[in-house]
Every structure is written in C-alpha cells, then in structure tokens.
Amino acid sequence: MSRLTRWLAPTTTARAHCDLPCGVYDPEQARIEAESCHKINEKYAANEDATFRTRAIAIKERQADLVKHHLDVLWHDYFKPEHLEKVPNLHELFWNANKQVSKVKASTEAADSKKLLEMIDEIDAAWKATGGLEKTRVAGRPA
Amino acid sequence: MAHRLRGPWRLAIEQASMEPALSSGDWLLVDPTTVRWPKRGTIVAFHEPDGGALSVKRVAAGPGDRVPFEAGYLELADDEAWLIADASEETAADAGLGPPIDSRRYGPVPVALLVGRVWFRYGPWRRIGRLSRG
C-alpha cells in the first residue's frame, strides 16, 4: 500500500452486515427445556417442602426462558415467508406457544406444561413439513 | 453539533448486505453533520439499536411514514426511520452469509443513532462516484 493510499484509507469500518447463522435448528432444543418445566411441575406437586418448592420454581422459570429463546430462534431464523405456504398457521403456532411458556412460568400445574409440550410438537411437525430435519441437522436426529 | 464534526468523515465497508450499491472494501465519504433522517433512498451510517455496531443501510421510510410489518403496518415516530439492506437473502447467501440484518430484525431506528449521510465512494478507483438514492 502506497503512502498516499495509506493516508486516504478510512480508519473507521462500518458493517453492511448479514447474519452468519450456523444453520442448525431443531425444536427438540425447546422441547427438552419444556420437558424440564413439566418434570419440575410434577416434582413440585409431589413435595411440600418449602425450600424445595422455592428452588423448583426458580429453576422452572430459568428453563422456561430457555424455551422462549429456542422458540424465538426457530421462528425468526429458521422459518422463512415461503414456509407459510406449507404451514399457513405458522405465526399462530409460535404466538400461542410463547404465550403458553409465559403461562408455564407463572403456574405450577402439570396440565399447563403438558399443553406446552403438545404445542412444541406441533411446531416440530411444521419444522419437519418444511424439510427442517433434512436441511438443518448434520445427519438427521440421532436414532 | 460540535461533537459531530469529529466524524467519522470516511468509512470502509465490510460484508455484503448493501450489494450491489456497496461492496465489501469500498471507501466512503460521510457527512456527519446530518442531524435529521435524509430523504428516502439515501444511504446512511448509524449505530444499530441492538448492540450499537456501526452499520450502513438505506432509508426505506422516514419519520411518520407507515411501513408494512407482519400482517399489518407500523407507523414510524417523528424521530424514526426504517433502514433496509439492498441485498436480497440470495445475494447475501452467494457471499456465504446469512440474511441481511436491518430494520426487519431490529425495528425502527431513532435519529439519535444516526451517524451521517453516506454520499460518495472514493475507493476503489474504478468505482469512484456519487452514490445514487436507490
């Protein structure tokens, strides 16, 4: 680089930036965290110890936040407008599932966390219907 | 205004979300004295609302405009603009990158985050020229 070029070169860099996703998406991530919430609700109901219950609620809230995070990543990064042709109720599925996560955070009823699992299964079906299993996992799901 | 005179007056671009108007490695002149959102179609430098990274995008809509969002519309506030990348997802993918990140990801951008109007490319030599308003 010549002295003139060095003198002219900008010292600040701006990004015209793009996402660099790893491209691996699977509703199973959200489901495992939701299963944690469900199991915690079951254990909560079976144990009346106040300390245990306080701890259970704190952990459930943390896991529920992870469910929301994984659902949001799927919704915003994996699913594309063209997927709406195959899954016309896609936004409704995610909207309802995220609302249900909020309900699970505030509730200790196993029925609520069970319902969340069913909603994630519907999202899983949408992911499979749009080729997610073949397109985003390295070698499909482990058998 | 005084702090704006400190610049930046020149920027280098990296990544590909403004292809074909801007390419990675372009050297640009910026007018940092711009304190209001310029006309639709103008390329601007600004700090991204989530994370603060210095970025460049094109003004797709300005204060008070309505922009299509989800199934309806979003009305921009008096100090907000809607900033969109030129590159399509396909163009970005050709460059080995994911979807462009713009207002469709982080929403409207308040004028407090505006750094300046990008108006001229002075490098590389073969691409020198004033930037069009898209």
Structure description:
The complex is a heterodimer of chains A (143) and B (134). By secondary structure, chain A is mainly alpha-helical. Chain A contains 6 helices and 1 strand, in the order H-E-H-H-H-H-H. Chain B is built from 2 helices and 10 strands. Chain B has helices at 89-94, 103-106, and strands spanning 10-14, 27-31, 43-47, 54-61, 66-69, 72-75, 80-84, 109-110, 114-123, 129-130. The longest helix of chain B is centred in the last third of the chain and has 6 residues, at 89-94. The mean pLDDT of chain B is 88. Classes of the chains: A mainly alpha (143), B mainly beta (134). Strand 1 of chain A pairs parallel with strand 1 of chain B.
Indicate the structural class of chain B.
mainly beta
Main sheet of chain B?
8 strands, antiparallel
Biggest chain pair interface: A-B, 18 and 37 residues
How many β strands of chain A by DSSP?
A: 1
Biggest sheet details of chain A: none
Number of strands of chain B: 10
Helix content of chain A: 55-70%
H/E topology pattern of chain A: HEHHHHH
Radius of gyration of chain B: 14 Å
Q: From the alpha-carbon coordinates, what is the Rg of chain A to the nearest angstrom?
A: 21 Å
Q: Indicate the overall shape of chain A.
A: extended
Low-confidence stretches of chain A: none
Strand content bin of chain B:
35-45%
What share of the residues of chain A does DSSP label as strand, in percent?
under 5%
Which structural category do the helix and sheet elements of chain A fall into? mainly alpha
- The dominant shape of chain B is globular
Annotation field: number of helices of chain B: 2
Quick overview of this protein structure:
The complex is a heterodimer of chains A (143) and B (134). In chain A, 67% of the residues lie in helices and 2% in strands. Chain A contains six helices and one strand, in the order αβααααα.
Task: Describe how the helices and strands are arranged.
The complex is a heterodimer of chains A (143) and B (134).
Chain A: H1 3-8, E1 13-15, H2 28-46, H3 50-78, H4 90-106, H5 110-129, H6 132-136
Helix pairs in contact in A: 2-3, 2-5, 3-4, 4-5
Chain B: E1 10-14, E2 27-31, E3 43-47, E4 54-61, E5 66-69, E6 72-75, E7 80-84, H1 89-94, H2 103-106, E8 109-110, E9 114-123, E10 129-130
Antiparallel strand pairs in B: 1-2, 2-9, 3-4, 3-9, 4-7, 5-6, 7-8, 9-10
